[in-house]
C-alpha cells in the first residue's frame, strides 16, 4: 500500500489537533479535586486592559499545592547550633569597642 505525502500530512495534523482537545478543568472541578487530595489550589486572577477600560476578572486554576511541601525536617547531617565552634577571628578584644571605618 502506497501513502501519498498529503494523506500522511493530513493524518498527522488530525492527530495533533485531537491531542489538544482535552477537557479544560473548571475552577470548581480543580478545587474539588485538589481538596479531595488534601491540597491547596492556587488560583490565578487575570483581567484584560483595553482602551475601553478594564475587562472582567477571570479566575483560572493553577497548581495543587500539598501541605506536605511545607513540612521542613531539619537536615540530619548538620550538627546542632550548640555544638558548633565559636569563631573569634576578627572580633575585638573583650572590653574594646570598634568604630566603623568610613
| Amount of beta strand | 25-35%
Give me the oligomer status. single chain
Helix content percent band: 10-25%
Tally the helices.
2
Computed CA radius of gyration, to the nearest angstrom:
30 Å
Pick out the low-confidence regions.
Answer: none
H and E string = HHEE
Largest sheet: 2 strands, antiparallel
Instruction: Please state the average pLDDT score.
Output: 74
- Cα distance, first to last residue? 86 Å
The side-by-side strand order for the widest beta sheet comes to 1-2
Structural class by helix and strand composition: alpha+beta
- Name the overall outline: elongated
Strand segment count: 2
Key features of this structure:
25% strand; 102 residues; 25% helix; 2 helices; two-stranded antiparallel ribbon; alpha+beta
Summarize the structure in words.
The chain is an alpha+beta fold and 102 residues long. It is built from two helices and two strands. The chain has a domain at 23-70. It has helices at 5-19, 27-36, and strands spanning 39-50, 53-66. The protein has a two-stranded antiparallel sheet with strand order 1-2.
Amino acid at each position: 500500500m502506497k501513502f501519498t505525502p498529503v494523506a500522511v500530512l493530513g493524518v498527522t495534523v488530525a492527530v495533533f489537533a485531537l491531542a489538544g482537545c482535552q477537557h479544560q478543568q473548571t475552577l470548581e472541578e480543580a478545587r474539588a479535586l485538589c481538596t479531595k487530595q488534601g491540597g491547596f489550589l492556587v488560583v490565578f486572577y487575570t483581567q484584560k486592559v483595553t482602551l475601553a477600560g478594564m475587562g472582567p476578572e477571570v479566575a483560572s486554576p493553577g497548581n495543587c499545592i500539598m501541605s506536605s511541601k511545607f513540612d521542613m525536617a531539619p537536615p540530619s547531617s548538620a550538627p546542632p547550633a550548640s555544638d558548633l565552634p565559636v569563631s573569634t577571628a576578627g572580633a575585638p578584644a573583650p572590653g574594646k569597642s570598634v568604630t566603623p571605618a568610613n
